[in-house]
Specification:
7-stranded mixed β-sheet; 30% strand; 9 helices; binds flavin-adenine dinucleotide; binds FE2/S2 (inorganic) cluster; 279 residues
Amino acid sequence: MANEIIFKEELAPEVKLIKVRAPSIAKKAKSGQFIILRVDEDGERIPLTLIDWDPKEGTITLVFKEVGASTKELGKLEVGDAIHDLVGPLGKPSEIALHSKVCVIGRGVAIAAAYERAKKMKEAGNNVTAIISARTAKQLIFKDQLRGVCDKLYIVTDDGSEGAKGYANDFLRTLLESGERFDLVYAVGAATLMRSISETTKPYKIKTIVSLNSLMVDGTGMCGCCRVTVGGKPMFACVDGPDFDAHLVDFEEFRARIHMYDEEERVALKIAGECGCKS
Ligand SMILES: Cc1cc2nc3c(=O)[nH]c(=O)nc-3n(C[C@H](O)[C@H](O)[C@H](O)COP(=O)(O)OP(=O)(O)OC[C@H]3O[C@@H](n4cnc5c(N)ncnc54)[C@H](O)[C@@H]3O)c2cc1C
Ligand code: FES
């Protein structure tokens, strides 16, 4: 069955991994790309990063956090159920090249995307350090997989329940102040994380790439929903990204745009919760 879920696992509270039958996407997928899915015919379009893909098996792996009405609906699907539709792979693939020393940073659910990038950077011959962060130890995912592909793995939690206590940007700053150097820093997570990492690496002139999780609708450059300003120029995250040079991104505008519909999303979630259906 097309788009059938063949494996499902809960990785952390409200964070799920699913393996989906999607042979044509699995055949073409590249690092850093994403898909857009709808759980059912009337569903909202949800962009999710491709965490893994197996062209032989014809499957793709997605990891998502249940943050609103649509991701909660997706979380209700079980093995044997099918996702209504899936399009992809979308977006420009990440540049995976030999940079020598690379630092990959991810927070929360985005640790899965950081793992995918770390694995590909390692396969390209780089020395790879990963810094993963979360609110508490419970939200840390993909630790063993990262240990398998990284030369060094640092863990940072806000409350100090595992690894160093604090935030990934402060941890990175301490590493840089102690003389550590990277040729490339790659950060993926919430807007605040990506912005703070960008501000940390800027004085050191370290090339820094962020993967922007803008709000998206069509994913093909037509609707304008995912517009971001990069280097003073308007870009569309779905076709020009999602990877961009962090030091050129207008994070103020980016943050404002991703929170544009927060009130409407809160209402949608409340309605879905009250009537047991989607908004
Ligand atoms: C290219 C791309 C790749 C992504 N990859 C993943 C992934 O691999 N795993 C994953 O869990 N999520 C990923 N996201 C984010 C995911 O698409 C959203 O969480 C999802 O669409 C929310 O839908 P919802 O209806 O459940 O929540 P909504 O009701 O739409 O939103 C609930 C809350 O989450 C916030 N929110 C919604 N969308 C985003 C967003 N894109 N960025 C930041 N905050 C947002 C809203 O402001 C609101 O506060 C990605 C987004 C993009 C653009
Ligand atoms: S999502 Fe519509 S232009 Fe990018």
